[in-house]
Amino acid sequence: MDLLHRSVNVVDAEQFAIADPRESPKLRQLSTQKTSIPKILKPKKLIVELQAARMSTSLKLADDQRFALMKFRRSVQDVLQPHHDDHFLLRWLRARKWDPTAAEKMLRDSLNWRKHWDVDHLSDWDLPQSVKNYLPYGLCGFDKDGAPVIVIPFAGMDMYGMLHVVTQRDIVKVTVKILDHYLKLAREQSKKHGQIANQLTVIFDMEGFNLKQYIWRPAGELVLLLIQMYEANYPEILKTCFIINAPRVFAFAFSVAKKFLNEYTLSKIQIYKADPSKWQAAILKIIPKDQLPAHFGGTLCDPDGNPRLTSKICQGGKIPKEMYTNNTDKLNDDFTSVVVRKGGKLEFDISAPIKGSMLSWEFRSEGHDIKFGILKKDTTNGTQTEVIPIRKVASHQSDEIGVLTCEDPATYSIVFDNTYSLLRNKKLHYSVRILPPTKELQEMASIA
């Protein structure tokens, strides 16, 4: 019979832990009843199960949910740590729609992942301080429920530069380290303010966001990797997420990212365009002014009056090329390689048949620069208009990456011009794509 249906309370169980079972009147009495304690339960383990049972009754769960929680708890008892209470277990259960078997697999996979990345010892590891100075994030305070508030000035993340200084693995490690640090802080807050403080409130400031660097494959792939890692290993840690000052082009980026986010995460995200009157009101409903930088409508400032609170929130920035050490310029299978002859040019057309499509390009040249530009063709009269002026690009020093929103259906002419060089051929590797508009992009077309 289930422990929940036994007439045993925790006070009784505490006696079991300090007394010989044969000398305990309570135990002798229980042993004569049908609801006797199974011999396989040791006294201290019994206490744990009874405490867990009492806790599960206080969670206001439906009977089938309580049963799923009990089944899940017992199946993972061998790997649970002291802070893995029922609130922790419920995150995994809800993430797997109350299927205890699926939740067990998710949790065990995550614990194996933590071992693989040595997560519990990442406190002994860190990025060089010179690199950390370019990671845009920081804790500004706590929301009205006591949950930590993290601010991320996202446009300050130089993903291209970062991946030329450290590896993708390093960025994953530092992300995990930061998440675990804030989750430990949230657990401490929950001891004072209750479980409602055991999550994170996040503000992503997208002011100045440029999609260009995320069209670069290593950066785009890393962002998706981090999202997948987050969803697989940190279920339901997000209390609220404000994405503010979102430019129109952010709609495309989010339409890609949301495919990797689960329903719970999406339900916690609020997106606002560059309209402080709207997003400040929403933020101040949750975060007190004295816990929020003045830049976002609060009262916190640096001693020098800086409203962005840079003493606590790193703003990131462009990483100097002198710091570059890693060469991530590996050719992709879908790159086209050509030689543009001296005094010649490469020109080809690409069609964007749907309004709102995105024209993206990425290329590099070997050894020397080359001119690049994009022309828009008028099919009615055959004229061409420069939309990206043809100019000399130092694509031999770093990848040239860009994106263009096609306001109307049109044909574009891509130009790689080497007519100015009469002595050198130019070897070129390029990828040019038309990305069709998504439903989300069309719905958010009003974002400016």
TrEMBL record:
<dbReference type="InterPro" id="IPR001251">
    <property type="entry name" value="CRAL-TRIO_dom"/>
</dbReference>
<dbReference type="Pfam" id="PF00650">
    <property type="entry name" value="CRAL_TRIO"/>
</dbReference>
<dbReference type="InterPro" id="IPR036865">
    <property type="entry name" value="CRAL-TRIO_dom_sf"/>
</dbReference>
<dbReference type="InterPro" id="IPR036273">
    <property type="entry name" value="CRAL/TRIO_N_dom_sf"/>
</dbReference>
<dbReference type="InterPro" id="IPR036598">
    <property type="entry name" value="GOLD_dom_sf"/>
</dbReference>
<dbReference type="InterPro" id="IPR011074">
    <property type="entry name" value="CRAL/TRIO_N_dom"/>
</dbReference>
<dbReference type="GO" id="GO:0005737">
    <property type="term" value="C:cytoplasm"/>
</dbReference>
<dbReference type="Pfam" id="PF03765">
    <property type="entry name" value="CRAL_TRIO_N"/>
</dbReference>
<protein>
    <submittedName>
        <fullName>SEC14-like protein 2</fullName>
    </submittedName>
</protein>
<dbReference type="InterPro" id="IPR051064">
    <property type="entry name" value="SEC14/CRAL-TRIO_domain"/>
</dbReference>
<feature type="domain" description="CRAL-TRIO">
    <location>
        <begin position="127"/>
        <end position="304"/>
    </location>
</feature>
<feature type="domain" description="GOLD">
    <location>
        <begin position="321"/>
        <end position="434"/>
    </location>
</feature>
<dbReference type="InterPro" id="IPR009038">
    <property type="entry name" value="GOLD_dom"/>
</dbReference>
